Amino acid sequence: MTTKRRTLELELLAPARDADIGIEAINHGADAVYIGGPGFGARASAGNSVADIDRLCRHAHRFGAKIFVTLNTILRDDELEPARQMAWDVHRAGADALIVQDMGLLAMDLPPLQLHASTQCDIRTLEKARFLAQSGFDQIVLARELTLPQIQQIASALPDTVIEFFIHGALCVAYSGQCYVSHAHTGRSANRGDCSQACRLPWTVTDTQGRIVAHEKHVLSMKDNNQSANLAALVDAGVRSFKIEGRYKDMGYVKNITAHYRQLLDEVLEGRPGLRRASSGHTRLFFTPDPDRNFNRGSTDYFVNGRQIDIGAFDTPKHAGLPLGWVTGLGASHVDVQLEDGVGALNNGDSITWFDLQGELRGVQINTAQALEAGEAPSRFRVEPKEPVAQLTDLRKGTVLMRNRDMAWERTLRKASSERRIAVDLHLAETADGLCLSATDEDGHHAQATLSHALQPAQQPERAEAALREGLAKLGTTVFEAREVSLALRQPWFVPAGALNALRREAIAALEAEREACRERLRPTPPVEPPVPYPEDTLSYLANVYNRKARDFYARHGVQVIEAAYESHEALGESSLMITKHCVRYSLSLCPKQAKGVTGVQGTVKAEPLTIRHGDETYTLRFDCKPCEMHVVGRLRKNVIQQARREEKLAAATAQPIEFYRTRPAAPRPGA
User: Fold this and answer.
1) pLDDT category, 577, cuts 50, 70, 90?
2) Which terminus of the chain has a smaller tally of CB atoms within 10 A, N or C?
3) Which stretch is the leader sequence (predicted)?
4) Mean pLDDT, to the nearest integer, of 222-233?
5) pLDDT exceeding 90 applies to what percent of the chain?
6) Taking the mean position of all CA atoms in its chain, how far away is CA 551?
């Protein structure tokens, strides 16, 4: 399959923590799944064996769906060869592409797999996107911070490259690949799949005079991404792969969110005859998808439609849940609840939440829930929480309640909640010595099977014809569903059920074998030769160059000064530990641009630095107003440096230290 054909397809790309979740993502409508292999994925605790990758690939390929394996951490020199071997292992298991961050891999003997540029590559500009496309990447995921016009500019300039964009899930506040707070604080590197998520902590913000601007607020915590309302606009802008975040998420999340976007994308496709979905089959759901029922911090479309003031989840990084009702009374061991109109019944095991008087989210799980009135839809319940009522902070009569765990909903998604079928037309015809069954699927693949059998007239012709049609359409647990059954017979014949079943099974098996024989693996695009120049000739630690091959890659592409990655611990002073499009000043209505034209305010608000503090951690917020970006500035903790030095001494006996180009190479002497 060529890349040009793929740019005519819309791909729903779902996450999978493991193979079982990946299989359900396919069943609920995903055209592709991204999943971690045995190692080197940007979710350290979401690895999978090669055998599980193989199992997932076999299921996905039956529908023409694809499996992309994440190999998107930055790598030490001693990890390059194991990473290369893993790439070959997952290729043999059937993987269709590798998702990559470390450019050192491009200098290695990789299998003939497509390379997709990870979100960690921080693709914000046309120049960066074009460079990656010319360096061998067939699919690139753009930064989540881009607007529709910026996306369209890149997509228009790269018509043969598949443009991928995140449409749902948790948002990293930093440009992906540009956050080092976790490593500076704990030694756990986000670029190596082990982020400590300091951005979700509560921070106290003070100005240059020490005045508190915000107290214990989650000012670096973003709401969750939800582009449900923007899919058509993203298609028009040139996005072709629609990515759902969540390789740590559970089965219920993946089922629900995949099904939600499958329905929305199918609606978009109905109005765009020049585009098609990127895999085969139709998904039939046994539930109504609702993204609000999964863990979320509220929703935002981030910067797609320009800068918004309400992108932050400053009050809590937790899932508050959906509106439930309010407290009508309390006893020593129970709470009486009145449900809002239209809210489903409370269940044993549900969890309820509320905000205390300080605005902090509180919650408790319900042990038992008993209706206080008869009928099919009771609205009053008495619940016994798992904790003593007296210990439930600020829970009192009149308190507004939410529900962030609904056991009825969870039970729905634990069961079989969808089926996916490929349409097939079946045609039964007579032959000289019996019958021939032809099967043609929705993609045009064709197969047939024959049955040598003496044909006998049926005693009840109408009943016999109905039996033939019904028997042929019984496709059971196959991936097919009969769309049309036609008979080309001189008369209805009597065919024993066993013989008809065997004929059908043989034809369907031949059709599935034909589909597999015709399946083409994604072919990688070779890099442009000679190597194209990188957009810049100097790279700081922000380029995440962590091994010799990555260093040499950039040198071949014309970069003259190459700093080591932050994880190399060469940047010991104050550094930008996070670069983000989110601006705390703007979100707190302290941006100088917001004050323009406001009488008495214009000119008095300046983009001076702010300080944020959590425990013994203090960072400076600096504001770069020209690109409208914020930098979180700090330095490595001493214990992180000490631990790194100990590890370096242990490795010194077997590893050669990496030398980087800290100055521009001297120009060669004339005649040399």
Assistant:
1) very high
2) C
3) none
4) 98
5) 89
6) 29
Reported as a single tens digit per residue, the pLDDT across 401-435 is 999 999 999 999 999 999 999 999 999 999 999 99
φ, ψ (nearest 5 deg) of residue 311? -85, -10
Contacts of 326 (CB under 8 A, 6+ apart): 337, 338, 398, 399, 400, 401
Contact between residue 548 and residue 658 where contact means Cβ atoms under 8 Å apart: yes
pLDDT score for 663: 64
Q: Are 414 and 253 in contact (CB under 8 A)?
A: no
- Output the six-digit token pair for 270: 């109905």
Residues 6+ apart with CB under 8 A from 317: 200, 218, 221, 297
Q: What are phi and psi of 288, to 5 degrees?
A: -100, 115
Tell me how many degrees the CA angle 12-16-21 measures, rounded to the nearest 5.
Answer: 105
Give the domains, in start order, of the chain with CATH numbers: 3-171+223-279+287-293 (3.20.20.70), 189-222+533-672 (no CATH), 318-414 (2.40.10.170), 422-518 (no CATH)
Is the torsion defined by CA of 87, 93, 96, 99 positive or negative?
A: negative
Q: How far apart are the first and last CA of the chain?
A: 49
CA-to-CA dists, residue 208 to 282, 314, 582, angstroms:
59, 22, 20
Is residue 104 within 8 A of residue 557, CB to CB? The reply is no
Query: Residue 553 and residue 544: Cα distance in Å, rounded?
Result: 13
Helix (H) or strand (E) holding 139: strand 137-141
Residue 541 φ/ψ, nearest 5 degrees: -60, -20
Is 242:32 a contact under the CB 8 Å cutoff?
no
Q: Residue 206 has what DSSP assignment?
A: E
Q: Is the peptide bond before 627 cis (omega within 30 degrees of 0)?
A: no
